[in-house]
Amino acid sequence: MRTVAVLVLTCVSSTLHASGSTSQSAAKTLESAIFLAGPSIAGVPIVLAPVPPDGASRGVEAWTLPLQDNQAAQIVIYSGSGLFRCASDPDRLDYHYQCLLKLASTIIHEAWHYRHGVNEAGAYEAQIAFLTFHGAAIAQIADARLSRDRVLAAQQAIQRSRVDR
Ligand SMILES: [Zn+2]
After folding, report:
1. In angstroms, what is the span from residue 47 Cα to ligand 1's centroid?
2. Please, are residues 137 and 117 in contact by the beta-carbon 8 Å criterion?
3. What is the pLDDT of residue 22?
């Protein structure tokens, strides 16, 4: 069921691209997600990027750019991700809301990094609390927990390899 929905959404998004209205609709999607994320992210700079960063892992949805040279720190949302395209599709209202909610939770996650640093446990805790509070589907919350467990396990493996050296 979920696979079918994703295929349909992919087609919709290429139609949007062809019509040239992508950037305007992307800005609207981001606005909706920011509204849903709520006042806790007020003042956090968020921008859209049409391409993922160099060397990004597959499925990247958002990242936080640290303060560099003259460039202030900011959150970047990848407008080409499957999640973003799903959140941009108003024709599938039930599915659309869950995607928009996940996009908002991704902003909450990155906003945590923006304010508190690289700790993934804290960022995921904020994200999962947001999803739970806003009535996210159980599968959605389970997905976020799974991502957290994977990321934390990978971090621990890196730390162990550093200690072993
Ligand atoms: Zn993170």
Report:
1. 17
2. no
3. 62
Distance between CA atoms of 108 and 82, rounded to whole angstroms? 18
> What does the alpha-carbon distance between residue 100 and residue 94 come to, in Å, rounded to a whole number?
10
pLDDT tens figures, 82-123: 999 999 987 876 678 999 999 999 999 999 999 999 899 999
Residue labelled with tokens 């062809």: 18
The H-assigned helical ranges of 117-137 are 120-133
Residue ranges near ligand 1 (ion) with Cβ within 5 Å: 120, 123
SS3 150: helix
Rounded Cα gap, residues 91 and 142, in angstroms:
25
Instruction: Please tell me the distance between residue 91's alpha carbon and the centre of ligand 1 in angstroms.
Output: 30
Domain boundaries of the chain, sorted by first residue:
2-164
Residue 88: count other Cβ atoms within 10 Å of its Cβ.
24
